[in-house]
Design goal:
The chain is α/β, with parallel strands linked by helices and 499 residues long. 37% of the residues lie in helices and 15% in strands. The longest helix is centred in the C-terminal third of the chain and has 20 residues. The protein is globular. InterPro entries: Delta_tubulin (IPR002967), Tub_FtsZ_C (IPR008280), Tubulin (IPR000217), Tubulin/FtsZ_GTPase_sf (IPR036525), Tubulin_CS (IPR017975), Tubulin_FtsZ_GTPase (IPR003008).
Amino acid sequence: MPTLTIQVGQCGNQLGSSILSSLASPSVPSPSSLTPTSLSSSASIPVPPPPSQFFRQTQRGTNVARAVLVDTEPKVVERCLNPLDPSAANFRYSQNNSCIIGAGGAANNWARGYSSPESVLTSTMEKVQSELEKSDYTPAVHILHSCAGGTGSGLGCALTREYNDEHGSKALIFNTIITPFETGEVIVQDYNAALTLSSLNDFSDGVLCIENEVASRACKKLLKIEHPGVKDLNGLIGDSVASIIGDSYTDLQSFNNAANAMQMDDILRHMVPNSYYKMMSLRMVPMMPERSVEFTRDTWESGVVKRLKQMHRCGTPLECDINWRKEEDVGASISNFLVLRGDGGLPRMGDEKRTGILHLERRRRATDNSTAALPTPPPNSKTPPKAASAKKLPPTSDVWSVDCSSFSSPNTNYVDWNNDPFKVTRSHVNFKRYEKMGGLLTNSDSCLKLLERVDNAKVKFDARAYVHQYEAYGVGVDEFEAAFLNLDETRARYRNLSK
């Protein structure tokens, strides 16, 4: 089923472009999923199409994003629509699906973005409706925006409210928001963040919170980027989100039909079984510099899964911060969604130095599956000859049989009232440059650290600092107090999970 992406503001448009680019990147299936014929030539390796829920294909085979781009300034939207190097782009946006509103930004004022004129919301929702009509049914929408600025946070919340009013009974709303650095971005960022989280509590079905602080540390500590820029941050976040929402399957039998892939609405229903608990966080393993990937080999149970479990146990978003002394979960969880991708059973395709090893493995697997053995390649040949028989081989059982019981009860501290707290899906298609990777989406009390930052906004509010700027656009003392109360109640609920 299709998922509509709505990118709002500078942050939302840059991040949306990064996520969709990651989803559309050609991924090579792990060698064990290929036929002897396809293995005989790297040129014939089948490349899976991008997830159909996020793209539609033109008659020429071009991937067009099911997306609407919204901003109050044209610069970022135009860059998305018209990339500097169109030939390098792996997808494109529909030129008719952009909505440039006004001639300036929202001045980092949540209230200004949220109180956008009715004509602004109407014109945007018309673009949304036009995209929805290109599919029979769209069960989920993915809205991307910032949590600190004016356009992204305010207008993003207004569009979430509007979509909920018009389509909430038929579709689920998944918001991915970028929370600001703790200091130094915008003087009123704590106000904007509090108002954003409170509004999404009311109108969204699930909120994935990505912390800029964490993404920056990941770039520095794990990717070894000394001074990460916006492109680096968006690239890392885009890969992390795509690792979760891209096509994955509950079992091997489902893999041959894209319609069986885990959909955005499936993820939301699993992750948010109770509408009082909507906040989610994300972890991904591994993260490493591209130059290190070729020299790294990982394992499943004792590698990827073990590290993700320990990160969850410690409540840390990055594997460089794992405390291996922790033997029990530090908090309580409502639900976890684990995605495993790749295989890693064989050397990477295109690695000419290991062609001989790869050829021997092809021969063994072809024989095991009652196909004709591959003839010995001639000396110095980089491409073995084709098999005499091209019977399709099943994918390896490796990724499909990984033991993930460490995430099941009683090994994880789940709440008593959720009868289905853990789900794992898989794909033997390698994710970008990684042989094996895992992504973990969590709904737990790890969000409390973010909610504690609301107190910074309260300190400013008690002094009535900058409140007049919000009052000018209809958000006054009553609205602030209601937002703080909303978040205090949310914080109390998550705190009580461990009691």
